[in-house]
Amino acid sequence: MRVVVTQEDIKNGQRKEEKFCPIALAIKRQTGEERVRVYGASIYIGDISYQGLGTGDFVEDFDNDEEVAPQEFELVEYVPCKDEFTE
């Protein structure tokens, strides 16, 4: 899934708020899904977990009040491997 973060998403984004950062706002706008949480590279949309390619640096910069620009990110659905649940 490709996510396009616009200048409007950045302007309306809230720092250190996983549900209201620019990436979360972009996902909500593009998908209509309201249950979105962004924790750096770990992104949850509804009940599905994704890994965001390049999102960690963007979130860190945004949260630290550094200038960020509109960007596109690729999200890859995270499917845990069977071995992660065995000891």
How does this model look, in words?
The chain has one domain (2-85). 29% of the residues lie in helices and 29% in strands. It contains 3 helices and 5 strands, in the order βααβββαβ. The model has no long low-confidence stretch (mean pLDDT 93). The protein has helices spanning 7-12, 22-31, 55-63, and strands spanning 2-5, 36-39, 42-45, 48-53, 71-77. The chain has 87 residues and is α+β, with helices and mostly antiparallel strands.
Q: How far from one another are the termini?
A: 32 Å
Tally of individual helices: 3
Oligomer: single chain
Q: What's the total count of β strands?
A: 5
Outline the secondary-structure elements.
Blueprint: E1 2-5, H1 7-12, H2 22-31, E2 36-39, E3 42-45, E4 48-53, H3 55-63, E5 71-77
Antiparallel strand pairs: 1-5, 2-3, 3-4, 4-5
